[in-house]
Amino acid sequence: MITALRMFSWNIRGNFAAMSAILLVPIMGMAGLVVDLTTIYYEKSGLQQVADSAALAGVSELGIAGRTDREIHASIKGFVSSNASASDTASGGSGSLDIEAEISKDRTTLTVDLTYRWSPFFAHYLSGDFMPIKVRSMAKLAQVEPSCVIALNEKGAGQFSMSGKASLHADQCAIHVNSNAADAIKVDKRAQVSGANIYTAGGYKGKSTVFRPMPTTDSPTIIDPLAERAPPSIGKCMSKRSRLTKKKRILRPGTYCGGLEIDDETHVLLYPSIYIIKDGPLTLKGESSLLGRNVGFYFTGEEAIAEIGVESTVKLTAPKSGPMAGILFFEDRKSKPGRKFAIRSKNAQLLEGAIYLQKGKLFVDKESKVGQAAHWTAIIAGEIEIGDGPNIRINTDYAGSEVPVPVGIASSGTARLIQ
What we know:
Blueprint: H1 2-60, H2 69-83, E1 96-103, E2 109-117, H3 123-126, E3 133-141, E4 147-151, E5 160-162, E6 167-177, E7 185-187, E8 192-200, E9 204-205, E10 211-212, E11 237-244, E12 248-251, E13 254-262, E14 267-270, E15 273-278, E16 282-284, E17 289-292, E18 295-300, E19 306-308, E20 313-317, E21 327-331, E22 340-343, E23 347-364, E24 369-370, E25 377-386, E26 391-393, E27 415-417
Parallel strand pairs: 4-6, 4-25, 5-7, 5-25, 6-8, 6-26, 7-9, 8-10, 11-13, 12-14, 13-15, 13-16, 14-17, 15-18, 16-19, 17-20, 18-21, 19-22, 20-23, 21-23, 22-23, 23-25, 24-26
Antiparallel strand pairs: 1-2, 2-3, 3-27
C-alpha cells in the first residue's frame, strides 16, 4: 500500500514538472510579448516627439535665404541624433535608427521619416509589422516671405508714415506695423509703398493708389526678431566728445564717450568691429563721409543718437560675427521711447545690415537715397517716419551677402505640423 502511494506521489510530481515545463514556454512568450509591446509603445511615442520637433525646426530653416537642402538635411540628422540617443530608448539602444527628410519642391513643406530597427523578444513571431518601428512627421510654413520693415510700437497713430513724394520699395519681403490704431499706417497721396505683403494690427489711412498690395488689416503683431540678441559690452572711454575735422582719419573700434562728430569735408575710414557711441550723438555734417566694412554702432545713454546730414556719404556693412552680427545700428533697450535717429543723406545706398531701434524712431528725410547698393537691409524700429522725398530700397539678396541675416528677418514663416 505504501509503495503504491509513493508511486502515485512520484507520478503527480512528474506530471506537475512536465506540465510546468510545457506551460513555461507560453508564459515566457507572454512575458516577452509584454516587454516587446511596452518597448514598441515607448519607442514609437518618443520617436514621434523627436520627429515632430525635427520637422518644426527644419521647416523653419526653409524660409532662410541661402540655406541649401544639404545644410537642412544635415541639421535635421544632427537634431535627431542628439535627441534620440541610446540612453533614451526603451530597448536600451540595441537597435539602429535611419533618418530621412524630404523637402517639397516649393520649399514650404518638410517630411521627416524615422525608422528604428530592433530585435524583439517574441513579437516578430506573431507579425512582421512589429519590425521596424516607423514614424512620420510633416510640417509646413504658413508664411515664407522675409520680414524686412517692422514698426514695433503696438499703440499710436502713424507708427509707419510717409509724406510728400517719398517711396519705399520692399518688393520681396513683408512690411509689419504692430500698432492697433485705426490709422496705424499713414501714407500721403503722392507717396508710394510696396512690399511682398503689408500687414498692420490696426488699420491704414491712404488712397489705394499708394499701396502695392493693399494692407492686410487686423493682422497678428509680429515678435521683435532681435529681442533675444544680447548687447555688446561697453569698455572704457577712448575719448570724450570726439570731433574730427577736415582731413582723412582712420578710427579704431571702442567706446566713444560724449559722441562722435564728423565735420564738413572730413573722411573717416573705420576698422572692422563694434563702435560704442555713449552719452552723445553720432553726427555727420556737410560733405563728410563714413566708410566701414563689417562694423556696427551701439548707442547707449540718452544723448546717443544718429544725425546723418544731407550732403554726407555713408557706406557701411554690418559685422559678420559677434554680438552685432548682421546689425548696423543697435539702440540700448533701456533708452526712453521715441528718440529720433535721422538719416538725410543723398548717398546712403550702401547700408547693408539691420537698423535696430527697439524703442526709437527712424526718421528718413529730404532726398535721401537708402539701400539701393546693399545686398540686403532691414529696418526694425519702434516707429518709422519717412519725410518728403526719400527713396528707400529694401533688397533681399541674402545669399549674395557676406553679412549674416538674423533669423526672424530672413525667416518669418510660422511653422505648424500637418501630420
